[in-house]
TrEMBL record, chain A:
GO terms for biological process: nitrate assimilation. The keyword Nucleus does not apply. Residues 565-626 form the Nitrite/Sulfite reductase ferredoxin-like domain. This is Nitrite reductase (NAD(P)H), large subunit. Residues 8-291 form the FAD/NAD(P)-binding domain. It holds the Pfam family Fer2_BFD. The lineage of its organism: Bacteria, Pseudomonadati, Bacteroidota, Cytophagia, Cytophagales.
TrEMBL record, chain B:
Gene3D superfamilies: Rieske [2Fe-2S] iron-sulphur domain (2.102.10.10). GO terms for molecular function: 2 iron, 2 sulfur cluster binding; metal ion binding; nitrite reductase [NAD(P)H] activity. It comes from the Bacteria. Transmembrane segments: none annotated. Keywords: 2Fe-2S, Heme, Iron, Iron-sulfur, Metal-binding, Nitrate assimilation, Oxidoreductase. This is Nitrite reductase (NAD(P)H), small subunit. InterPro entries: NasD-like, Rieske-like_NirD, Rieske_2Fe-2S, Rieske_2Fe-2S_sf. The lineage of its organism: Bacteria, Pseudomonadati, Bacteroidota, Cytophagia, Cytophagales. GO terms for biological process: nitrate assimilation. Residues 14-115 form the Rieske domain. Signal peptide: none annotated.
Length: 841, 117
């Protein structure tokens, strides 16, 4: 056992920042071989989320607020002592002593003692019914006292004070007053006009706001009965919460002889070392860069800096951006950069909408080029973009007011310019709230030019992954702007674009991933090139995707021919061509769903989705569906999904053509064909367009004389209308053009690129596409049609093949050593009369 | 005074499955002592790996269903849910330093796969 050589780290304080330090330390590999960790906390509870403290009143329990359960500490080998603050640090002997007399020696100390409430010396402040708002204990006291109080007040109109005031209302008090010394609310974040907007919003909620009020005395007997102010006025209240600011908890450090600031705070350097290099201080007890950082984000960053330091890495705590955005009692409030900038070098643009309770202000340089800062109240949607613009000193548009008002007028950005024409504040990754500007900045200034690097540095693409193609385009766009030649290659294993690789695979007749990798790639492949090659192989040969070595190169859904859902179950979507289904088949779907206890929902593509199927049950479910005449709906594949239809001339009094029959025909023709991304289609029986064909990858709309064919439309996150490819054509011509169009797309698009994006990036746009598909300027039309026909001829329902093939079927088990047993981790919750996947943490 | 000797915990080897149960260059999940363990048959290198089946990101038990591959020389697996990738050697998440998974000793003998706990 090597424990005696381990460095002993003592963490004093088990608040949010102290906890974050532990979390970051134990995330390191081999940390336990290098350190032992002891934590002392003053409060009886393990670290909890103080930012959302007010939610304690709206029903959150202390356990739910905890950042990690009590057991977490022991599980990770952390010694935790609660209700036992450290009272003495002996720097000579390198020992700390706790209140209960526990003596622990240390190599390093981390002071994360946080802050306490600052209570001004107002006469009467010691009376019963006067509280602070800092810990769960405080809240418990407030809660029990509130039951017998009618009128409450809060001293301090800052963020915490306003939350406390709202809490008073929630606790059932009849009146809740906010008393602020300054002439406005949240004086550190917003200006007078913003405060005015906020005030009217708060008053609408039932709060009463008093500004410019200096509390002089708290009156009453043993218990508070009222407050008297410097201007002579008074207010009757039964209880009072003081929220007038924070005071760093530096008393222990002071007693240990560490340097502290006269006005509070333990002085630290850029490495967050105190005047004793073995003692660090982080969070609200530390004074870094001459200031106390009273937010949690910089505290977390400080924790990361100290962890890095302990592992011998060079990392400094840099001045931290104090821009904030929060939802305060349901009202958005944000401020960024210098919210109050004024003077001759600065111009201010404001927007106020009293009816809607919105106030916005931006401060820009006199030359109109840079954003200095601003304030948003009531609507903070543009916060991320503005913050990026401000931080990156991005050159502003000619009319900077557009930044807060949005584009007005009918102008539309040219689609062809694609992603580079998006504004900087365009949110690229909405999971992690990452803007175009942030990603471009990483590419330009930090040299992150691959998806993997960007994932690490920005966390983009790490949530749902939906933004990956956009980020890829951004990398290309930025590098192109810098005049760099960009080869659009698949990943580190293949030095080819998808189109190049598709040609090589076709010419060489390769049908396995191993064959393709051995001949044209290097390394062992990855989750990017494997599905891309899988798509190429399927698009070229249309063999069963799970045969040969292809099962393990399929993406999550294709691997088991079903859509993986939260909790690890799958959903099942049988094909219902054109949305037309017989009562008998409907009954079968219902019976199967009942038998396997599945949640059922009608999809947007006119079919029925059955959720919550265990991996083990998939082959049995499909066996029953196939017996009833169903086929795979390929809802899991980058393939044709549905061809939506309106009822058309067979029943509709307006219909001019039989849209359902044509939709069924088109869906039957292209079903199972794999493409770079999913394909959706629609057929409408008249100009009313009830099938929404113009939002599809290919859409067909009936005319008096025949059909109009539209291509490259998109719904989804960036809706785009499909463009007209051909007018008044007959069915046969329509099918022929579709064969060519789809095959051209399949052969030339990048992985995971929808038809709309493919067209947007195509030089010459729709004119060129028309020239190729309709006028055959490249002379490839016959070849495209032939290739499409081969795919159609090779179609077989892949689920039928799996159901009938014991070897393939065997793969649909969760535990290979217990094939009958289902994943015990799968859990459901009731939802209305059905069920849903259990929410993940 | 007594001296305290702490011995290394002994590894117990558990029979997990047949070699043929795990697809080449893919994974499969086994249940050993109530623990879900993902076994990977890294056939391209003739190597075998074993890790937790649960991805720490959203506590989903499906790593065995993920694609394996390499990043540089590092063998890795990608979670089917959100494509967090983990080193098969160390368990460290390669796309997000916050996460890691446990790895287990694995042995292949006479066509049988054993996991050490």
């Amino acid at each position: 056992m090597l424990a005696n050589t381990n460095k002993r780290v003592v963490v004093i304080g088990n608040g949010m920042v102290g906890y974050k330090f532990c979390e970051k330390l134990i995330a390191r590999e081999n940390w336990a071989q290098r350190f032992t960790l002891t934590v002392f906390g003053e409060e009886p509870r393990v670290a909890y989320d103080r930012v959302h403290l007010s939610e304690y009143f709206s029903g959150k329990t202390a356990d739910e607020l905890a950042l990690a359960p009590d057991t977490w500490y022991a599980e990770h080998g952390i010694q935790l002592h609660l209700s036992d603050p450290v009272v003495h640090i002996d720097r000579e002997r390198k020992e700390v002593r706790s209140h209960h007399g526990l003596v622990v020696s240390y190599d390093y100390i981390l002071l994360a003692t946080g802050s306490g409430a600052f209570v001004p010396a107002i006469p009467g402040v010691e009376k019963e019914g006067v509280f602070v708002y800092r810990t769960i204990e405080d809240l418990e006291f407030i809660q029990s006292y509130a039951s017998k109080a009618r009128r409450g007040a809060v001293v301090g109109g800052g963020l915490l004070g306003l939350e406390a005031a709202k809490a008073l209302l929630d606790l059932g008090l009849h009146e809740a007053h906010v008393v602020e010394f300054a002439p406005r609310l949240m004086p550190r974040q917003i200006d007078a006009a913003g405060s005015g907007t906020l005030q009217s919003q708060l008053e609408a909620l039932g709060l009463t706001v008093h500004l410019n009020k200096n509390t002089q005395e708290i009156i009453g007997g043993d218990a508070i009965e009222g407050m008297r102010f410097a201007d002579g006025s008074a207010l009757d209240v039964d209880m009072l919460i003081i929220s007038a600011g924070i005071r760093p908890r530096d008393e222990l450090a002071k007693r240990a002889g560490l340097e502290t600031h006269p006005r509070g705070g333990i002085v630290v350097n850029d490495h967050l070392q105190t005047s004793d290099p073995d003692i660090f201080a982080i969070g609200e007890c530390a004074l870094a860069h001459q200031m106390i950082y009273g937010l949690v984000a910089p505290g977390y960053e400080m924790a990361a800096v100290v962890v890095a330091r302990l592992f011998g890495e060079e990392k400094k705590f840099k001045p931290f951006d104090m821009s904030t955005k929060l939802k305060l009692i349901g009202v958005d409030v944000a401020s960024f950069g210098n919210p109050f900038a004024e003077g001759p070098d600065c111009r201010t643009v404001t927007y106020e909408n009293k009816a809607k309770g919105i106030y916005k202000r931006i401060n820009i340089t006199a030359d109109g080029k840079e954003l200095l800062g601003g304030i948003l109240v009531g609507d903070a949607e543009q916060y991320n973009g503005l913050l990026q613009t401000c931080k990156n000193k991005t050159i502003l548009p000619p009319d900077p007011e557009d930044l807060i008002l949005g584009l007005r007028g009918g102008e539309e950005t040219a689609g062809a310019a694609g992603i580079m024409s998006l504004p900087d504040d365009a949110l690229i990754c909405s999971c992690e709230a990452i803007t175009k500007a942030a990603i471009c900045n990483e590419i330009t200034n930090n040299g992150c030019t691959t998806i993997d690097q960007l994932k690490k540095s920005t966390k983009a693409c790490t949530g749902c992954g939906g933004c990956t193609p956009l980020v890829k385009d951004l990398i290309q766009g930025v590098l192109k702007q810098q005049g760099l030649y960009v080869r659009n290659v698949l990943c580190e294993h293949f030095d080819y674009s998808r189109q190049e690789l598709l040609d090589l695979v076709r010419i060489n007749g390769l049908k396995t991933y191993g064959g393709v990798l051995n001949q044209f790639g290097k390394g062992d492949g990855c989750e990017v090139c494997k599905p891309a090659v899988a798509s190429i192989l399927a698009s070229l040969w249309n063999e069963n995707i799970l045969e040969k070595d292809r099962a393990t190169i399929q993406d999550s859904n294709d691997r088991f021919l079903a859509n993986i859902q939260k909790g690890g179950t799958y959903s099942v979507v049988p094909r219902i061509p054109g949305g037309e289904i017989t009562p008998d088949k409907l009954i079968v779907i219902g019976q199967v769903a009942k038998k396997y206890d599945l949640y059922t929902k009608i999809t947007g593509g006119q079919r029925i989705d059955l959720f919550g199927a265990h991996l083990n049950d998939l082959p049995k479910i499909w066996e029953e569906l196939i017996d009833a005449g169903f086929e795979s709906g390929h809802a899991y594949g980058k393939a044709l999904r549905t061809v939506k239809s309106c009822v058309g001339s067979t029943w509709c009094r307006y219909g001019v053509q039989d849209s359902v029959s044509f939709a069924v025909e088109v869906e039957e023709r292209y079903k199972g064909i794999r493409s770079p991304h999913k394909l959706k289609s629609g057929v409408s029986g008249c100009i009313r367009e009830c099938a929404e064909a113009q939002s599809k990858d290919f859409g067909i709309i009936a005319t008096e004389k025949g059909w109009n064919l539209y291509v490259c439309g998109n719904g989804g996150s960036k809706p785009q209308h499909a463009q007209l490819l051909a007018t008044d054509i007959d069915k046969e011509t329509c099918i022929r053009l579709l064969d060519r169009f789809l095959m051209f797309y399949i052969k030339t698009a990048d992985p995971l690129t929808r038809t709309a994006t493919w067209l947007n990036k195509m030089e010459g746009g729709i004119t060129y596409l028309k020239a190729v598909v309709v006028d055959d300027v490249l002379g490839i039309a016959a070849e495209l049609e032939r290739e499409m026909q081969t795919l159609i001829d090779n179609y077989a329902c892949e689920w039928k093949e799996v159901v009938e093939n014991p070897h393939l079927r065997k793969r649909f088990t969760h535990f290979i050593n217990a094939p009958e047993q289902k994943d015990p981790a799968v859990q459901f919750e009731p939802l209305r009369t059905q069920k849903r996947a259990k929410e993940w943490k | 005074m007594e001296s305290i000797v702490i011995e290394r915990e002994e590894i117990t080897w558990h029979l997990a499955c047949h070699v043929a149960d795990v697809p080449a260059d893919g994974g499969a999940c086994v249940l050993i002592e109530d623990r879900q363990i993902a076994i990977f048959n890294y056939a391209r290198r003739g190597e075998w790996y074993a890790t937790d089946n649960e991805c720490p990101h959203r506590q989903q038990t499906a790593l065995a269903r993920g694609m394996i591959g390499s990043q540089g020389d590092e063998p890795k697996v990608a979670c089917p849910f959100h494509k967090k990738t983990f080193s098969l050697k160390t368990g460290q998440c390669l796309t997000d330093a916050e996460y890691r998974i446990r790895t287990y000793p694995i042995r292949v003998e006479a066509g049988l796969v054993y996991i050490g706990l």
